[in-house]
Amino acid sequence: MKLFDCQPKKFRGIFVNWRNLLMWGQNMDAELIAVGTEMLLGEIVNTNAAYLARGLSQVGVTSHYQQIVGDNPERLDAAITVAEQRSQMIILMGGLGPTKDDLTKQVLAKHLGLQLVEDAAHRQKLDDLAKQRQKVMTPNNLAQALYPEGAVTLTNHVGLAVGAIVSGEAHQYVLLPGPPREFTVMVDRELLPRLMQGEKQHLVSRTLRFFGLGESALVTAIGDIIDGQDNPTVAPYIKDYEVTLRLTASAVSEAAANTMLDQLQARILAVLAPYYYATGANVTLAQTVVQELIARKISITAAESLTAGLFQATLGSVAGVSAVFPGGFVTYAPTVKHQLVGVNAATIADYGVVSRETACAMAEGARSALGTEMAVSFTGVAGPDSLEGHPAGTVWIGLATATGVRAEEFHLGGHRNEVRIRCVKTALMMLLHELRSN
Known about the structure:
The protein has about 450 residues and is of the alpha/beta class.
């Protein structure tokens, strides 16, 4: 049933059987158009384009151009026209919601001379939501179930606005939602698998997470793997002082794709094992360490100076940590280091606050005070000023266990809070190595 008449300015005669899209994915070039005035105003960052560009490259689709256009139908129509002159695939991101400025699908339908029709599954989702909330579904919300007539619909697994692919002889048009939570799922579960060559191809991705090695050094270390990639592919990117590698394989079955990924992962870890901590798109270093502690039933505490409780707060962000973390200490002043964890005043007088000796005394003192199996300590210079002749970024991290105590010196870059965050992550990696070595 047709629900929305776009009053097309003309019929362009490009719409063809949608099954052809299954052969479009390989060797195509795409243009990404992000729709939303808020991006032009700098209120939000267009992270969707970067995410999608990486995904497209893994299935043989290159993106030579990207545009950002505001919530204006005339300018959006003009952007589509420009894209048609230089790209085969035109991907529109955002503007599929229920508000007046969400006009992307209406503009595209009018541009192509098509009408909007209703997707029954998404309409049912809207009706079910209205019933659950005991509210009447308004016409503007119903617009989220509309898509250009004849297009292939893309299921929105976590939201309400339906996506779509309109395939023609000269161009292919894709409609994707703007909210990243909806966007990434639709890209991974709907769009990319459809762009693989052949209906029986399976696209499987895996994310490897690393800490302690910069992106440039990591890419250099596995340069031969990256240079020779074809299928599977390797896509490195950096976030939150960590580097991740997204591995993607295409095969006739999911099992075959996973076998390919297993082999590639083994090659990568043969080089990068000391920096690897987990596999998974949403796994954190803190979660990985806490899970190891819980699995081994090893308790931990901490004595923190320059990090001022950030390490303990990071542990506390992981559910279930109370099973292994009874509490800890924040010991900024030298006198407090003595009062709470028993650091001898002579140690600080002889070696200074920023020293191996003080870090070891703090860690062993904290472990002894609470009777835990392990303890971590932090002392150093977060900045911006130097301390005891040590430049900002100089830190000592101590680690005490039942078999002894040691400390390591690090020189971390960045401003004050960056040093503190990196210090905490460095300690977590030290802990992980200690746990996995026993």
